[in-house]
């Protein structure tokens, strides 16, 4: 995996993110886990950039479609 594909700073708890002024950078990366133990997690992760030029890592929960959630920031 290329360096810098994961953020250097993960939030303790993901935060709902307003999509106003956000730009999605590239295509989604799907991450799935827990299918083997019933704790399914299916998310599409995106690299994002804010109006202010901050770059982050956000996801959509595919099991419960809704808002974009901020997971962390790139340094």
Description:
With 75 residues, the chain is mostly beta strands. The chain has one domain. It contains no helices and 5 strands. The chain has a 5-stranded antiparallel beta sheet with strand order 1-5-4-3-2, with no helix packed on it. It is globular, with a radius of gyration of 13 Å. The model has no long low-confidence stretch (mean pLDDT 89).
Notable traits:
DNA damage, mainly beta, five-stranded antiparallel β-sheet, SulA_CellDiv_inhibitor, UmuC domain-containing protein
How do the strands and helices of this protein lay out in sequence?
Elements: E1 9-17, E2 23-33, E3 41-49, E4 55-61, E5 68-73
Antiparallel strand pairs: 1-5, 2-3, 3-4, 4-5
Strand fraction: over 45%
Strand order of the largest sheet: 1-5-4-3-2
Enumerate how many helices there are, as a single number. 0
Order of helices and strands: EEEEE
Helix content: under 10%
- Write down the domain tally: 1
What does the main sheet amount to?
5 strands, antiparallel
Q: Give the number of DSSP strands.
A: 5
- Tell me, rounded to a whole number, the average pLDDT: 89
What's the alpha carbon Rg, rounded to whole Å? Answer: 13 Å
Straight-line N-to-C gap: 18 Å
Note the overall shape: globular
pLDDT < 50 runs, ≥5 residues:
none
SSE-based structural type: mainly beta
């Amino acid at each position: 995996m290329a360096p810098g594909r994961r953020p250097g700073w993960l939030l303790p708890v993901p935060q709902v993110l307003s999509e106003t002024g956000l730009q999605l950078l590239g295509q989604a990366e799907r991450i799935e886990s827990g299918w083997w133990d019933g704790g399914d997690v299916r998310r599409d992760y995106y690299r994002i950039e804010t109006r202010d030029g901050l770059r982050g890592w956000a996801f959509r929960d595919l099991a419960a479609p809704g808002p974009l959630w901020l997971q962390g920031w790139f340094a």
